[in-house]
Amino acid sequence: MTNVRKSFLIDMDGVLVHGSNPIPGAPEFIGRLKSDKRKFLILTNNPLYTTRDLAHRFQQNGLEIAQENIFTSAIATAKFLHKQRPNGTAYVIGEVGLTEAIHAVGYVQTATEPDYVVLGETNYYNFDQITTAIRLIRGGARFIATNPDPIGPSENGVVPACGAMAALIKEATGKSPFFVGKPNPLMMRSALNYLNVHSEESIMIGDRMDTDILAGISAGMGTVLVLSGVTDLHNLEKFSYRPEHIFNSVADINPSDLD
Prior knowledge:
- By secondary structure, the protein is of the alpha/beta class.
- The chain folds into 2 domains: 7-45 and 182-258, 3-Layer(aba) Sandwich (Rossmann fold), CATH 3.40.50; 86-179, 3-Layer(aba) Sandwich (Rossmann fold).
- Helices cover 33% and strands 20% of the residues.
- The protein has 8 helices and 15 strands.
- α3 (73-84) packs parallel to α4 (96-104).
- It is globular.
């Protein structure tokens, strides 16, 4: 019996790029996927940017990745909302990557009795927006958040991210958000459906044990941890689960070796 040619879901930050800089060997790895005619998606919890914006940023950094090969937590969140309540309404805190995705599924964005409050990432969290979100959730709006990451990377160091702000809103409302992004298997299934592949024939490549690898395992996928991001071999021992494969970076990965 021949091995199935695997498809790949690949995290972005810490796997392909550090901030605005490509990780050495990442462009060549993407080239190997393309020359091997592999299905792949860049999968990111970052909802700030549209897929068009991300594709442009990748190409400026020598990574030839089309927007069709990018899937964000903003897209996953919009798909979830559309399935839960088609053509609903939402009060949205986030940047264009999130607002555009939610508009694209037919949602109206409003602060007047919305069905949902949707929290994403923003470069400038606004106290008035947070106050409005708290009041709407206390008034009955359902609380959705794009991703549970408490911090994110920037050129000048870590910055507060969606998970940290969600914790503030939870404390003020007594209501926990439903997180759509990794490690929720919902995002993985949404991405697999988008790519039209099966979990058992796919591999998740990431640098975080608590999001990427956990999400891959929970979705029934193969898993690859790269040590080019936040995880090293020492803190790997904190977790009760392990990836199937460990590489220093994607530069060391030959896709056919993982079939």
